[in-house]
Amino acid sequence: MSLEVEHLTGGYSHVPVLKDLNFTIPEQTVVGLIGLNGAGKSTTIKHIIGILTPQKGTIKLNGVTLSGEPETYRKSLAFVPETPVLYPALTLREHIELTIMAYDLDTKKAWQQAGDLLTRFRLDKRLDWFPANFSKGMQQKVMIVCAFIVPAALYIIDEPFTGLDPLAIRDLLQVIEQQKARGAAVLMSTHVLATAQQYADSFILLSDGEIRAQGTLTELKQQFGMGAGNLDDIYFKMIDEVAQ
Amino acid sequence: MKQLWQQRVQQHHKEMLKYSRYVFNEFFMIAIFIFIGALAYSYSNVLDTLTGQLWWAKPLILVILLVLLSFGHWATLLQDADTLFLLPKEPQLMSYLLAARRYSLWLPAAAFALGLGALLPFQAVATNLVPIDGLAIFVVMVALKDSQFWLQLLASYQRFQRWQVPFYLIAASVLALSLWLTPLAGVLAMVIIEIGLRWAIPRWLATAIFQWRAAVKNENSRMLQLYRLINLFTDVPQLSGKVHRRAYLDPLLRLFKGSQQRTFGYLYLREFFRGTEYLGLYLRLLVLGAVIIWFIPLWWVAAIAGAIFLYLVGFQLLPFYQVFNENLLAHLYPVPQVSRIRSFQHLVQGLLLVQALIFALVMLVNHSLVQWLLFTLVELAAVFLLTLVYFPRRLQPEK
Questions:
Q1: Does the UniProt entry include the keyword Membrane (chain B) (predicted)?
Q2: Which residue among A161, A182, B356, B392 is least packed, with the fewest CB closer than 10 Å?
C-alpha cells in the first residue's frame, strides 16, 4: 500500500473544503484525480504534500504519517506543481544539485538519471542558464526533471498536460510508465480527460470536496449504469446528477 | 497625446519625489555640504596661486564644457506596453515627443548654469573672458543640448543613427569659436544651426517610421541608470528581485560543500550573492561603517560604533531568512527546520565576521596595537553574541 487517505477532512480555515475523503493509491498504479475548478483537487494535493494539515483523518505514505516521521514521509514523495516554482538565482544545473542535496541522493546515480531526463526533454544544452527566464513550458520540464530524479514512492503531478507541447506530453507519459514499472504510485490531477482515460489505471471523481465515484473505467461505467461511453460521458453524467 | 505626456510627467515627478526623500536624507546633505565647502575652499586656494593669463586655461575649459555637455538625456518616459497600446496613435506621437524634448532640456540647463557659474572665477582670473561672456557660453551650451535632442529624435525615426561623433566635433568647434574668437560668434553659429535644423527636420521626418523598440529600450536603460543611482541610498523595487549571474563569484560559491543538512546553506549563499537587495544593503552599511570608524579617534567609541553597525546589518538581514517562504518546493524538502535555521545562522555569521574583519583592518591604520586588539575583541564578541544568542531567538517563534 503506497498512499492511504482515511476520513480526510480539511481546508484552509475552519470551514472544511474536503469532506471525509477515503482512497488509496497502491504501488504500480496511476490514479487520475478529476474534478471541476474548485472541486478540491488542489486542496487534496496540498494535504498530501503536507502544506495543509488535516482537520480530521490521516494520510499515510508507506505506513508513515507526516507528523510521525516528517523526513521519511517527505523523502518518499515528489511533486510537480501546476505553476512552476523556481529559484531565480539558481541555474538549471544548480536546481538539480540542490534536489540531490535536499533528498540526499547518490550523486552519480542521480546525475545519470538527470542526464537521461534532460536529453529526453531537450534541456541538456541549457544547464548553465537560469530557468527562471525560460518559457512556461520549459520551466515545467525543469520541474518534471527535478521531481523524477528523486526515486520516490509517490509522484504527485498537478495538471501535467497544460502548457507542454505534444512531444513533451508523450515523453512525460513514458517517464511515468517507467516509474510505475519500478514500483511507484502516481497521482495526477487533470482536466484533459481523454489523456487521463488512456494512461490512468483508475480515477477519483471529486465534486464539492467529496468523492462522487472512484475506480477503474469499467467500474465507473457500472456505477453510472453506462454500457458504452468514455470518461467524458461519465464525468458529465456525474455533474448532471450533482446538479439535480 | 499632450495629456498623456502631462500624466506621465506627473507620475515621474511623484516617483522621484518619493525617492529624493531617501536620497537627500540629513546625513547625506551634511556630507554634501561639507564636501562642497571643502571643494570651494581648495578651489579658491588654487585660484589665489594663479596669476595672469594661462595658456592651458581655455583648452581646460573646453574639455570641461564638453564633459558638461554630455550630461542629460532625452527622457521620453515611454513604457514597454506603449509599443502595443500607442501603436495606433503613432501619427500623433510627435506632439508627445516634442513635449518630452522640451521638458528634458530643463535639467541639463540647470546643470550648465551651475557648472558655468562655478567656472566664472577661474575664467575671470585665467582668461581674457568677462562674466557676460559666460552668459553667452551658457546660451551656446543650451542650444547645443537642444540640437543634440533633435538629433536623438531623428535617430529614433531611423535618421542619422550615428550622430554622436559629428555632433561632438561640431560642438567642440562651436565652443572653440566662442572661447578663442568671441562668444557672440558661437551664439551666431548656433542660431544658424538651430534655424537649419528646424527647417530640415519636418522634411527629413516626412516618411520616417518611429522605432518603438529602440526608443523604449533607450528609455528603459536611462531609467535603469537613474534607479542604480538611487539604489545606492535606498531599495528600488524595480531593481530588487533582479538576479545577476555573477559568474566570477562561482569559485567562491564552490568552496561551499553541500550536503543534505546544508541544503539551505547552498540556497541562501547563492540567493545572497546573486541577488541585489540584501547584497546591496550589506555593502552599503559595510562601507558606511568603515568610513565612520575611520573618522572616530577614540578606540572605544569606534568599537561601540562598529558593534552598532554589526547589529544593524545583522538585524536587517533577518528577513532574508524568509526569502524562500513563497517557494512551495522549499517546504517539501526532507530537511529538518533546525538545519535551515542553522544554515541561515552560518551565513549571517560569515557575513558579520567579514564585516568585523574589515572594520578591524580600518582600525589598524590609525590606532595602536593594544587598542586594535581590544577593538577586535569587542567586535568578535558582538558577532557571536548576535548570531549565537540573539538571532536564534528572533527566528524561533515561527511555529
A1: yes
A2: A182
